[in-house]
Amino acid sequence: MAKIDLGQAPVREGSGYPAPFHEMAEGRTKWQLGDAGGLSDFGVNLVELPPDSWSSQRHWHEGEDEFVYVLAGELVLVTDEGETVLRSGDCAAFPKGVANAHHMVNRSDAPAIYLEVGTRLPQASPCHYPDVDLCYDPERGGYLSKDGMPYPKRVMA
User: How far apart are CA 38 and CA 155, in angstroms?
Assistant: First the structure.
């Protein structure tokens, strides 16, 4: 059956960033709907972002498209061009290879809920984080400082 039982979907809480970069996304919860539905070409996540949380560190991907659609609440999209408020029914797209770093911040007093859709590759592509000393390079082992030193793996609770 194609219907996905949200209660059976894999859930990820927080982020996989190394310390201290994980702290701003600690309250984020993602239901991995694409995984639950057996999708292989693209990922789909239902995300709940509590007040005062970030979706991620500001970033851009070399080889992965991203799309978000806000279902409830209010978010501030932060890009290289500045800030834009996103409310229920608003969406944003981030084409692969475009060096316009982005993330969303919940500055409201209520949770925000959005869908996030992205390219699913056999191996992740490099990702750039211009605001902090962080980059992601799967060929060099994952998260690195900008001078190429690997970060220690963070123990996930």
Answer: 28
Q: Is residue 104 assigned to a domain? A: yes
Domain count across the chain: 1
Angstrom distance (rounded) from CA 43 to CA 32: 8
Q: Is 140 domain-assigned?
A: no
Number of other CB atoms surrounding residue 141 within 10 Å:
11
Q: Taking a C-beta distance cutoff of 8 angstroms, is the pair 78, 105 a contact?
A: yes
Q: How far apart are CA 128 and CA 139, in angstroms?
A: 14
User: For residue 80, what is the domain's CATH number?
Assistant: 2.60.120.10
Label residue 104 exposed, middle or buried (CB < 10 Å: 0-12, 13-18, 19+): buried
pLDDT tens for 94-116 read 999 999 999 999 999 999 999 99
Residues of the domain holding 39: 9-123
CA torsion sign for 118, 31, 60, 128 is negative
pTM of the model: 0.93
Q: Residue 28 burial by CB count (10 A; 0-12/13-18/19+): exposed, middle or buried? A: buried
